[in-house]
Amino acid sequence: MSAGTLVTEAKYVEHHMHFLQLNLHDFTFSDGGFWTLNLDTISIAFILGFLFLGLFYLVSRKVTSGVPSKLQSLVESAVEKVDESVKESFHGDRTFMAPLALTIFIWIFLMNFMDLVPVDLIPRIMGFFGAKYFRAVPTADISQTFAMSITVFVILIFYNFRSKGIVGLTKEILSRPFGWYLFPINVVFRFIDELVKPMSLALRLFGNLFAGELIFILIAMLPWWQQFTLGVVWTLFHILIITIQAFIFMMLTIVYLSMAQEAH
Known about the structure:
The structure is a single chain. The protein is 72% helix and 2% strand. It has a two-stranded antiparallel sheet with strand order 1-2. Helix 2 (39-61) packs across helix 4. It has one domain. The model has no long low-confidence stretch (mean pLDDT 88). The protein is globular, with a radius of gyration of 22 Å. It contains eight helices and two strands, in the order αββααααααα. The chain is an all-alpha fold.
């Protein structure tokens, strides 16, 4: 392989790894470090979220007790499956937990599903509107996965305080798991335990989707006859990955919140 070909392929990969960014210092489309918004991640995530909520709202407005439509059956099946999963893992009031779990699963699945769209399709479409870069998989952006995991972490803290109170939570942090005499070690262990939860949620989802996106980009650089064979095989396998990752994020959220409201 010639040096020129290697440079071209490297630029192709680099181009697909770059976000459409807005610098908040001067509101230009450039990388501004920490104070930078990835507009492609935000826009795709919001669009998929509104589509998901709008579709479920329309189905709920047209629900019938007679013979349901295929769409109604699909939505009801998703709601029932998620509610069953919550019931098995969360031992408390599911009024808030079941809708939260459903939202997490469907929204993350849709964002993951963007990885199955041809890698050049959306960037080329956005190129007609002047976007030099555009990444269409929100969950391949670590800022998006951490935003979701930190939100779960905030809810986790709220559940801890609501179920145990300030006094009860303080006693639990100081005395568990090694007793009152080793309270400094207990505090350190609790800090590590709580910190690992959002990090594991964010990094697991990001790692799997980033790797999947990168493999699709590498497949796109192959000759067309190889693209078709490898692309079909990897797409079928990746459908399983994106579903499992959405399910794992949902289930870990349920388990963490269930642990938060139970006394040790």
